[in-house]
Sequence to fold (302 residues):
Amino acid sequence: MKPDQYVIISPCRNEARYMRQTLDSVLAQTLRPVEWVIVDDGSTDTTPEILAEYARQYDWIRIVTRPDRGRRAVGPGVIDAFYSGYAALTSTAYEFLCKLDLDLRLPPRYFEILVERMNTMPRLATCSGKAYLEQGGELIYERHGDDTSVGASKFYRRACFERIGGFVREVMWDGIDCHQCRMHGWIACSWDEPELRFIHLRPMGTSQRSVYAGRMRHGQGQYFMGTGFLYMAASAVARMNQKPYVLGGLAMLWGWLHSAAQRKPRFENPEFRRFLRDYHRRVLLTGKKRAVAALAAARQPG
Fold:
């Protein structure tokens, strides 16, 4: 296998408004994928026609079509669609894979740089750039933790992805995977650098109903993952200075509290939940940067 070969899998539904920008920005990459499988998850707009147009022109773009489920599915629905694409891959000789949404615009050296980082950092399991919104001619940072790869553009070392068992088919799949990587002594991260900043054409967490529903869903996902109340409350407070001011953070906390009150199921991995609570305690006591460094020093890949 060549150390620069990667594949992309893109679940999508009704992305006709945004997808040409994503498609064209991947075509413009200095390092293109060996295969790109795009999963049309029952689109009812002109998405299928646009996908067919690109697939006719580029033989490394392949389309998988799923039946219409009648709605946009987030969390487990997105991962179900992702795995339809994963199962349809024909390439076997690739080192890296990316789960990529079709509402992004990527800088031209995006994948070239990520591959370079992977090849120079053996402990790096998953990484990404940072997502920004364009508003009034300015770039607005969507605020992602440096200890995670962004869910809209998760770039993975194939061996690490397979070792953690891939993505969990639940809300907060894009947090659980990064913590699982840390459990194995690997690094999960994202970088805020000009050549790795990508444009999110639709605000994060608004694809289903509203930004408030997205924030509530985030809190529900944190509860499922195993996050404790103190860390959840601290996270909600930290988000209150981000639009929608105050209410967005309160919606996150309400999502967690509502799940707790209903005693909803939690991720069925006690070892993971213990690891997560210990990590969150370290973050609250020492800050995220020191907590990540301490874990990296204490755990070796294995």
About this structure: Residues 86 and 280 are 32 Å apart (CA to CA). The two ends are 22 Å apart (CA to CA). The first strand starts at residue 6 and ends at 12.
